[in-house]
Amino acid sequence: MSQTSTTPLLKATGIKVAYGGILAVKRVSFEVRPGELVSLIGANGAGKTTTLKAITGLQPLADGEIALMGKTTRGQGAWDLVKQGLVMVPEGRGTFTRMTIVENLQMGAFLRNDPRGVQDDIEKVFGLFPRLKERRHQLAGTMSGGEQQMLAMGRALMARPRLLLLDEPSMGLSPIMVDKIFEVVADIHRQGTAILLVEQNAMRALSLADRAYVMDSGEITMSGPAKALAEDPKVKAAYLGE
Ligand code: ATP
User: What is the pLDDT of residues 5-52, one digit of tens each?
Assistant: First the structure.
């Protein structure tokens, strides 16, 4: 099938993911269209991280299908998916702690073959996160949680993502750092990159997203425009602390 402008960037259809005999994701369907910021919100243990792992192939599907730009991801390795622009910033960041900031950013460009473009992109990341530039020769492991989140996002951008998967980028950060991270998420979105944002901070996620899906006990229980969900009494009661 040829790709058209209406083909979703990512489409999950009836996916199931199990740990042993226990289904953590139960027949879930959702999509992200080009340039969209879509959020997946829900309580601890709802299955959000597992869903992201299924998208990147880290966790196998028990059923259903995931398609990237209209083509099934089944049988494609993680690097194939990165090459096509599917890049994840995992929960807990996963920076290379014994490498410097610059080295971590270079690792993000591992699959690229354009040294000049890579250098330009490092400068762009430094533009988004001046703090990383100040500390560019510092070892990643010696940085604060917020700085490591910046670095993990910067490293992901070095792969020139078409779709960025962000798993709880605000987790464990100070309020100022949370503001900074969400500001940059909005910026990346404005520049045209599609984002799938997994967050427990539902209020902030809904304020940024175009659309959102609410996940509960492995199922999508609600979905729609983020604004409408933020005003929905059920969402407010369950996730927005009202
Ligand atoms: P969190 O914000 O805590 O990461 P989540 O919505 O991302 O929550 P998941 O981490 O996807 O939820 O977990 C979904 C369910 O799968 C939970 O019941 C969890 O205990 C279970 N689970 C997650 N990882 C594993 C694993 N490696 N082995 C067994 N069960 C797991």
Answer: 678 999 999 999 999 989 999 999 999 999 999 999 998 899 999 999
Question: Residue 123 burial by CB count (10 A; 0-12/13-18/19+): exposed, middle or buried?
Answer: exposed
- Cβ burial of 209 (10 Å; 0-12, 13-18, 19+) is buried
What pTM value is reported for the model?
0.93
Residues 152-165 as b/e (b if ≥16 CB within 10 A, e otherwise) read bbbbbbbbbbbbbb
- Which of 17, 28, 39, 50 is the best mutation target for the ligand 1 pocket, counting ligand atoms within 8 Å of the beta carbon and taking the most? 50
- Spatial CB neighbours of 231, under 8 Å, sequence gap ≥ 6: none
Domain ranges of the chain: 10-95+152-239
- Give the pLDDT confidence of 139-153 residue by residue, as tens digits: 999 998 889 999 999
Q: Environment class of residue 147 by beta-carbon count within 10 Å: exposed (0-12), middle (13-18) or buried (19+)?
A: buried
Q: 10-95+152-239 architecture in CATH? A: 3-Layer(aba) Sandwich (3.40)
Q: What is the distance in A from the centroid of ligand 1 to the CA of 167?
A: 13
Pocket-forming residues, ligand 1, beta carbon under 6 Å: 19, 24, 42, 44-50, 200
